[in-house]
Amino acid sequence: MKKIILLIPLMLTFSFLHADEIGKQLAQESGCLACHSVKTKVLGPSYQDVSKKYKQDKTAKSMLVKKIKDGGKGNWGNVPMPPHPQLKEKDIEKIVTWILSI
Ligand code: HEC
């Protein structure tokens, strides 16, 4: 029994790591990295800056998912992000989880 209890946090850690990897991969596959990079501003803000801005904000996640899906501007300047209607909401959530984990 003790062994199982010890294994649970370990398994949780691994599944979180895995979720981050999936988010990163989805961002790569979805073309996000054409305009964003982790550390430096490209056309859009760096994901490090996005994470810094929203990490403590519990309502940010759903706002960001909607913004990625519908596109928009104004939070970082006047350059708009185009909408991504082809992406599944679940996949966008995984990307946002990865971004906020940076
Ligand atoms: C054509 C360039 C472009 C592409 C492709 C793009 N973005 Fe953006 N993104 C931007 C710009 C420009 C902004 C800044 C918008 C603003 O000022 O509110 C932005 C902002 C963001 C933000 C912060 C939003 C906010 O309101 O603070 C997130 C998160 C984000 N992008 C994620 C993504 C993800 C995930 C993808 C891929 C599915 C993606 N972006 C693809 C240009 C792009």
Describe the protein.
- The chain has four helices and no strands.
- It is an all-alpha fold and 102 residues long.
- It has a single domain (2-100), classed as Cytochrome Bc1 Complex, Chain D, domain 2 (Orthogonal Bundle).
- α3 crosses α4 (89-100).
- It is elongated, with a radius of gyration of 15 Å.
- The model has no long low-confidence stretch (mean pLDDT 91).
- It has helices at 2-29, 47-54, 60-70, 89-100.
- Residues 27, 30-32, 34-36, 43-45, 50, 64, 67-68, 72-77, 79, 81-82, 84, 87, 95, 99 line the site of heme C.
- Heme C is lined by residues 27, 30-32, 34-36, 43-45, 50, 64, 67-68, 72-77, 79, 81-82, 84, 87, 95, 99.
Give a quick set of tags describing it.
102 residues, mainly alpha, Cytochrome Bc1 Complex, Chain D, domain 2, 4 helices, 58% helix
Distance between the termini: 35 Å
For this structure, what is the CATH class? Mainly Alpha
CATH architecture descriptor: Orthogonal Bundle
How many structural domains does the protein architecture include? 1
Give the beta-strand count. Answer: 0
Query: So what's the oligomer here?
Result: single chain
Q: Provide the helix percentage.
A: 55-70%
Can you summarize the main beta sheet? none
Average pLDDT level: 91
| Overall shape | elongated
What CATH calls the topology is Cytochrome Bc1 Complex, Chain D, domain 2
Radius of gyration from the CA trace? 15 Å
Low-confidence stretches: none
Q: Spell the H/E element sequence.
A: HHHH
* Alpha plus pi helix count: 4
- Distinct small-molecule ligands in the complex: heme C
